[in-house]
Amino acid sequence: MSQKNKIIEPKVLKGFSDSLPKIEIQKRRIINKLEQLFSSYGFVPIDTPALEYTQVLLGKGGGETDKQIFHFEDNGGREVALRFDLTVPFARFLAANFNELAFPFKRYHINKVWRGEKPQKGRFREFYQCDFDIVGVDSSEADFEILSMMNHSFSKLGIKNFKFHVAHRGLFNAFLTHLDLLDNSVEILRAVDKLRKIGEDKVKEILIEISGDEKKAQLILDYIKYDENETFLQTLSRLSALSGGEVEHTTRMTEIYNYLDKADLSEHFILDPSITRGLDYYTGIVYETFLEDLPNFGSVCSGGRYNNLASLYTKNELPGVGSSIGLDRLLSALVELDSPLLKQSSSSDVIIFNKGSELYPIGTMLSAQLREKGLRVDSYLLNKKLPQQFKYAEKNSIPYGIMLNNETISENTFTLKNLETRETFDHISLEKAVEIIKGN
Amino acid sequence: MSQKNKIIEPKVLKGFSDSLPKIEIQKRRIINKLEQLFSSYGFVPIDTPALEYTQVLLGKGGGETDKQIFHFEDNGGREVALRFDLTVPFARFLAANFNELAFPFKRYHINKVWRGEKPQKGRFREFYQCDFDIVGVDSSEADFEILSMMNHSFSKLGIKNFKFHVAHRGLFNAFLTHLDLLDNSVEILRAVDKLRKIGEDKVKEILIEISGDEKKAQLILDYIKYDENETFLQTLSRLSALSGGEVEHTTRMTEIYNYLDKADLSEHFILDPSITRGLDYYTGIVYETFLEDLPNFGSVCSGGRYNNLASLYTKNELPGVGSSIGLDRLLSALVELDSPLLKQSSSSDVIIFNKGSELYPIGTMLSAQLREKGLRVDSYLLNKKLPQQFKYAEKNSIPYGIMLNNETISENTFTLKNLETRETFDHISLEKAVEIIKGN
């Protein structure tokens, strides 16, 4: 008997957490808004398995991810792993389903990924990613479309003061070619990507080590310096000159800028050559997104153009461009920004208080009618005194309550109470109540 | 070089599958409808980690799930496992977050679970579950609320001819007590639960083995026999008599039936004593849902009342009642039923065809305006001839296309084409186009 009553501690793993209603309501609201937005651009949703063959996910391996991935041998002796991003599974998906898809293929994918990273503030071992990509076309129009969707996403979420920092990987490679350092591009990219984290001096040290040349290291640092007094096109022209003159990438960036300008979006975009993105699959434009009101928060939406993402899995060439929003990080940012989007987290619009089981069927009927009018209606189910019922409503941030009473049922009215102001409306009809509740 | 070009086969694990856009659009539509419905009843969403301590998920263990669970040792040497249902994590969640929650707590949880089951038709190793529960109250009103939400869910999904088969675990236990077989209740429940699968003769054999009494085995079989000529209340009264007379459970079932009847829902509910549910945590009403047009499909929504679900993790008593919809199975059913809900799977309402990059910014502006009117607007991004663009639209089931041309831009009109009927509207304004597209 003592065995049977032994309590198991209900703990979760380090780096994982339960999502309580107030947070989950907000998360679902953000996801719904983004889904609606992506759909309005003709993007379609996909999903892939959470669990895949380890070898498929790691490819040739050797990266940081190898250490962070959750992997194990399943009961059938297969080496399997939980996906650590939505990019690799997407590449695999494109190869596996190539003949089923209509290209250019525009997809979004919002779901969880898992990484055994060291847990720290804002870093979790389980988190949502939200990716959207256009695959099958290499053009400034496709690049622009992703950028304009990023812009639209942030506006739609009610975020103000965001800036997209863009650069071009091809342009940077042209510059490295000019310096005769193209063979070291991956190491240089990774070094430059650390600029914000470790500072200029440390990056210079690493660059000298890579290039064996203090002058070249300095040239790289000059190249990646963002000058806020230059316009987008001035910076572009300076970078082109540093790379030995105009190249096709200069033209591409000019075209993209012109589209942004014509669409009245250019004020949100900065040409910032320090943006390089550490990942080596990018080949064209790259970008990160910063919230000006949270300068130390880091990027909340990043991506770029890759012209051969699925090459591990297929010989079909699949140029693409895409972006990824870190939903949990974005949610943390919205919390810090005290976003109005997160204000409304009531579980219902109105609650029917419990006045005994004889009145319950009347309440049920009333609830059904209110739901048909588009309201969310809770009904209190315990036989408790009214003050305790009010407490429940308060804990759930429910703004209105309805009290039925035997005397007024015959006239089809009831009492409506604004639970915040304590204002009471007696002998009120269904129509009038809906009006008051919606008016709030 | 040859190493670098080696292709990795883009395969997925057995029992897992990619979700292509047509399926994923449908799945998301169903999920959104259910989320809306649950919210309209004041239910709030929660989520729990996909990965938990194995010991927490398996509890005292010993069940079928032990063999099916995906579990492993993580890099920190912890024994961890992927959740195999949303019920056990919910019990753990209730214990862990008891002080944060407002009771009665009404929650829904829609997310994936993983089981290493033998893959077969309609059985996957990764699938969505959709659970909704009311915890903290033991009353006929709470039981009724879950039943009426089940009914509302199926209506809202446009499903016709569904029947909820309900029974009462407490009533069945009273019957077993009467037969002096209560100590064997778990084995008997599991045997009876197999009736549909293995047939009456086999079940009888097992029951004789358990009870050691052919007569008692026959009495059990008589008890669980559903007689379609009886009304709900007649069956209830017969079962009570077989259990030695009326008990509190008879009263509870009568109350629930009366609420269903008053809400005009009783025609969808059948008192079917063969429904026992194999799981031993149920203590009150239990139910399964069958689609009459797919008689061999099995239950698509099941659950019941449990009065001590979280007892493994807490000493707080948490009576509850809930239900679980197997979303992937329901989706398969909807496909087989050729449900109208699945008809609309276009990626967009309208597509702007590509007439060259000079017209692209105009198309962008037009798209933005159409989106503001609530339309989903794709824009074709490759420089291809029109027939190829039509093909893309067709593959994506997009019903309308817009062609811009230089001559009519100044008058703010364009050409709209119904891509199904091939009907063409020239010199059409934005307002008129929206009207036509929405009218469809």
Description:
The structure is a homodimer of 440-residue chains. Chain A is an alpha+beta fold and 440 residues long. Chain A has a domain at 350-439: Anticodon-binding domain (Rossmann fold, 3-Layer(aba) Sandwich). Chain A is built from 17 helices and 16 strands. Chain A has helices spanning 21-40, 54-58, 65-68, 87-96, 140-156, 169-178, 185-193, 195-198, 200-211, 214-224, 232-242, 248-262, 327-336, 360-372, 386-395, 406-409, 430-439; strands spanning 44-45, 51-53, 71-73, 79-82, 105-114, 126-135, 162-168, 269-271, 285-291, 301-306, 320-326, 350-352, 377-379, 400-403, 414-418, 424-428. In chain A, strands 1-5-6-11-10-9-7-8 form an eight-stranded mixed β-sheet. Chain A has a five-stranded mixed β-sheet with strand order 13-12-14-15-16, covered by helices on one side. A three-stranded antiparallel β-sheet of chain A has the order 2-4-3. The mean pLDDT of chain A is 92.
